[in-house]
Amino acid sequence: MKKLGLAWQILIGLALGIAVGAIFYGNPLVTDILTPIGDVFIRLIKMIVLPIVISSLVVGIAGSGDMKKLGKIGFKTILYFEIITTVAIVIGLFAGNFFKPGLGIDMSHLAKTDIHQYVNTAENASHHSLADTFVNIVPTNIVQAMGNGDLLAIIFFSVLFGVGISVIGEKGKPVIHFLEAVSEAMFWMTNQIMKLAPLGVFALIGVTVAKFGISSLIPLGKLVIILYLSMFVFVLVVLGIVAKMCGTSIVKILKLLKDEIILAFSTASSEAVLPKLMLKMEQFGCPKSIVSFVVPTGYTFNLAGSALYQSLATLFIVQMYGINLPIWSQISIVVVLMLTSKGMAGVSGASLVVLLATVNSVGLPVEGVALIAGIDRILDMARTVVNVVGNGIASVVIAKWEGQFDHGKADTQK
């Protein structure tokens, strides 16, 4: 009998988790049992992410060691990220204006979620300038940056460290060999941890359904449907055009990343798939030096799914309160989101924090965020998938732009 693939195992875990959560809806005992299992799985993933990012990035950079070339790749990467996230924001605004998901919502029937823990962070974010973001890229203590999971600071250090190892020549070879071994060991650990993915997914989705129940979706069902449709259009049309311009197809990339897509959707965690995403994009024909820089950087700068969600959710709140928001105010939302969404990596509940900061900056009631926070997990599942697919395609774009994309490898993928 043929063994079930990982994607099927995760889907079965997802279905069983939904069933168990629905049956035991509101039962705290089920939540108490399943929460530690889901938390352990996510912790196992987070445990290996930083060693993989550092070792892969240093080895990749040391292999090229050309600062001019690195600067060019960095500029192209940030430029592409800014363009694609702006397109996502505009699509979110268009969907919100066209479908008007917030009209006719009876707020008295909505469950209000406590968002007090995010409010202070959001207030700080609204005063967080672009200059602050760039200053914070440079770590004062790399060990502390690792402890905080500050990806931008870690990337900055790893790039400089990789260039330094390249410059010192033969003396740096032992460090490269050591980090290559670290990278391989981490990917072996990734493969072992992925065997637990169906169990982790079962626990995580079971807790979500048991806490909130399927019924919590009904009052906000229109928002959920419109968000999912908008994400679907963004991936197939926008990212599809981008993939076509790179000489490949979005369907081929989606097939390549099917395991990662299902896992990202089920866990609502981009970090859960980062190691495998990097490995898959290398297998697809993108050089290690580009993948190891673009993908981790994209986890901060290329959150197209989150950007689309935040623009649509802002308009949802506007419509729910019956506020007339002119086009100039909507353009200001685009500008605010372009800035605030860039410094939020590693912040707990980052999308809610950015949404709070955005709502606050255009003078909307922050209580509106509390009304949709209860289903944030359901919305998060969709935006996480788009973030993951977007960062995979970004590797292809930069590799193609640099003339280093291996079409031969891409063509061999089923």
TrEMBL record:
One of its GO terms (molecular function) is symporter activity. It is found in: Cell membrane. GO terms for cellular component: plasma membrane. This is Glutamate:protein symporter. GO terms for biological process: dicarboxylic acid transport. Keywords: Cell membrane, Membrane, Symport, Transmembrane, Transmembrane helix, Transport. The chain crosses the membrane at residues 45-65, 77-99, 151-169, 196-218, 224-243, 290-309, 321-340, 352-375. It comes from the Bacteria. It is a multi-pass membrane protein. Gene3D superfamilies: Sodium:dicarboxylate symporter. PROSITE patterns: NA_DICARBOXYL_SYMP_1. InterPro entries: Na-dicarboxylate_symporter, Na-dicarboxylate_symporter_CS, Na:dicarbo_symporter_sf.
